[in-house]
Each structure stands twice: as structure tokens, then as C-alpha cells.
């Protein structure tokens, strides 16, 4: 094999390896995310707007972020997350008027297919932002 043929064969091997690498990468599970929101920041009762952002892959939740904004008053409240029989209550948050507060938590937990995950603030349990965890 000449020097030119060896270089050409070597280049073809690199291209084939790169192609297989990309195919393998494309076949890996993609990270999924979901977002649910409810309410209105302008609500005069202080309930505000609530959003739940969830990051994960298929049935596994890596982390979530719950947020709240109330344009009408300063507030103090605790975030609550419920998914099936699992629940979490976060620490007390203190916000100025018009401030958006976000609380994030890494949980690395799997849930059954079609589990509903909801987030709310303890003083306003009727204002739930929800998503569905599914395959």
C-alpha cells in the first residue's frame, strides 16, 4: 500500500469512527423538561403567578424549580412539591413586592409513568402548577 493509500484509508477510518460516534450519541436518551404555570402576578390576594419547571429523562426527575411572583405585596411562604405519594416542603422564602423567587432542588428520583407533579406555595394550596411525568 502506497503512502497516499494509507493516508486515504486512515482518513476513511476517522470519518467512519466519527459517524458511529454521532449515531451512538443520537441514540442516547435525550433530556426532557416540562413547565407548568398558573395564576397571575397581579392577583390582589397575593397568590401571584406560580411556575414549576422539571428537568429529567423519561420517568426520572433530576431537578425541579418552583417560582412565584406577586406584583401587589411583599410575601413570606414555603414552596411545596407533591408527586404521587412523594412530597417536599422547602424553606421559608421572603420576597419584596414584584420580586420573583425561585427555589430549585435536585432529587434524582424515578416516578411511575403518568405521575402528576404539582408545585404550590403553602399559603395558597389551591394555586398549583402541575406537569405529568411520562415515558
| Overall number of structural domains | 2
Based on the coordinates given, report the CATH architecture of the largest domain. Answer: Sandwich
Structural class, judged by helices and strands?
alpha+beta
What percentage of amino acids are in beta strands? over 45%
What is the number of beta strands? 10
CATH topology of the largest domain: Immunoglobulin-like
Order of helices and strands: HEEEEEEEEEE
So what's the oligomer here?
single chain
Keywords: Signal
Signal peptide: 1-26
InterPro entries: TAT_signal
Describe the structure.
It is a single chain. The chain is 19% helix and 52% strand. The longest helix is centred in the first third of the chain and has 25 residues. The chain contains one helix and ten strands; from the N terminus they run H-E-E-E-E-E-E-E-E-E-E. It folds into two domains: 30 residues; 102 residues, Immunoglobulin-like. It has 135 residues and is α+β, with helices and mostly antiparallel strands. The strands form three sheets. A four-stranded antiparallel β-sheet has the order 1-2-3-8, with no helix packed on it. A four-stranded antiparallel β-sheet has the order 6-5-9-10, with no helix packed on it. A two-stranded antiparallel ribbon has the order 4-7. The protein starts with a helix and ends with a strand.
